[in-house]
Design a protein that fits this description.
Strand content: 25-35%
Number of helices: 4
Structural class: alpha+beta
Shape: globular
Order of helices and strands: EHEEEEHHH
Helix content: 40-55%
Length: 94
């Protein structure tokens, strides 16, 4: 199953991620005014308008999540920012 790049970018911005430009769009997670170490990026290229399982697995690691279900929930919006912060806290990430 694929997720549209615009959906991913919009979802991340709603959940405490700050966007920084460059060759790619980088998204760094911030909580309590500090970066947590969770991040990911999306490509601006036309070949990356949607992300399949291979790229989502890479994003899962960058986002510090344990399962693909968590990743899909974060990127497709059922998981809100508070729930994501709780996941990171339980893993002692911040």
């Amino acid at each position: 199953m694929q997720i549209d790049r615009k959906t991913i970018e919009s979802s991340l911005k709603k959940k405490g991620f700050v966007e920084e430009g460059g060759d790619h769009k980088y998204f760094y997670h911030e909580a309590e005014g500090k970066r947590t170490g969770a991040y990911t990026f999306t490509s601006r290229g036309t070949g990356f308008k949607s992300y399949g399982d291979t790229l989502l697995k890479r994003m899962r690691v960058q986002l510090r999540l344990d399962t693909m279900l968590q990743t899909r929930r974060l990127l497709e919006c059922p998981m809100d920012g508070d729930e994501y912060n709780t996941v990171l806290r339980e893993k002692s990430i911040f």
